[in-house]
Specification:
Elements (H helix, E strand, L loop, with lengths): L1 H16 L8 E10 L5 E9 L4 E8 L2 E12 L8 E12 L4 E10 L7 E11 L12 E5 L2 E2 L11 E3 L3 E6 L6 E2 L6 E10 L2 E14 L11 E2 L1 H9 L2 E2 L11 E2 L1 H9 L2 E2 L2
Antiparallel strand pairs: 1-2, 1-6, 3-4, 4-5, 5-14, 6-13, 7-11, 7-12, 7-14, 8-9, 8-13, 10-11, 15-18, 16-17
Length: 267
């Protein structure tokens, strides 16, 4: 448990050193712990204001307990344009001598709906024991309105685990390059991982978003060029994603004209 306390102290220090200006918004985490030998499920849900930056809570297990924290590191996502970044750290540590599966949704609640949004980002973990996927499920996925974004799943085989049990991988290509559906109320991540009998696990998430209304850059390289044109042509036809620049549920000549007229650097 000393290692857990030291990690929590370190996270508190990092939060105090963060220099990003934060904009307050509700953050909700919904989770379940499932005991592997009995199938028993222990659920929970917490909501806090992101201006608090660091939020602690506990979950009792049958013969022990878990200390959890969620820290907002960077909150530069502009809720008006839908462009920016959101970075947070989710820590869990403890155990009771049994194997558990931890499922959690972290949701950043938006003040209003967003359309024509591309998403991507980065995911990493640090653990005191080897990472364990559960039944082939992703370690993490981006979710909008609690629905996984296609192509955002991070599997254990996607990244590299180094000595010390550090693992890192990208959502998509690491930049806003995955088209979403219409986002009504929230954006965040879904986590699923099998926990050893005693554990400390730190999950570090950066979500990156951009609006194709401002710039039809579909691969996140800050340039509108033939690569973006190819992505658009590959999706020609009915669509309800951010590639539909005219919001008419079709990718057609009107969207093609916007991309061709936007060739060059995004500013």
């Amino acid at each position: 448990m000393n290692s857990i306390r030291h990690a929590v102290i370190l996270l508190s220090t990092l939060g105090a050193l963060a220099t990003h200006e934060l904009c307050a918004a509700p953050v909700t985490i919904s989770y379940t712990f499932t005991k592997q030998d009995t199938g028993d499920i222990l659920p929970g849900e917490w909501t806090f204001d992101s201006s608090e930056q660091l939020f602690f809570w506990t979950q009792s297990l049958y013969n022990g307990g878990v200390v959890m924290s969620l820290e907002i590191i960077n909150e530069s996502l502009d809720p008006t344009s839908g462009t920016g970044e959101l970075t947070y750290v989710l820590d869990i540590g403890g155990g009771d001598g049994s194997d558990w599966v931890f499922d959690a949704d972290v949701r950043y609640e938006l003040p209003h709906s967003l359309d024509n949004i591309m998403v991507g980002g980065e995911y990493s973990t640090y653990s005191l024991s080897p990472m364990i996927e559960f039944n082939g499920q992703p370690l993490a996925s981006i979710i909008t309105d609690q629905n996984p974004v296609s192509g955002s799943a991070v599997q254990y085989t996607d990244g590299v685990e180094t000595p010390g049990y550090f693992f890192a991988a990208n959502f998509g290509n690491g930049e806003p390059s995955l088209p979403t559906q219409f986002i009504n109320s929230s954006i965040g991540t879904r986590h699923t991982i099998k926990l050893a009998t005693s554990f400390f696990l730190q999950q570090y998430v950066t979500l990156k978003t951009s609006s194709t209304t401002q710039c039809p850059d579909f691969n996140g390289d800050k340039i509108v060029d033939s690569a973006d044109l190819g992505i658009l042509l590959g999706a020609y036809g009915p669509s309800s994603t951010a590639l539909d620049l005219t919001n008419d549920r079709q990718i057609n000549g009107a969207d093609l004209a916007i991309v061709l007229g936007s060739f060059g650097s995004c500013r």
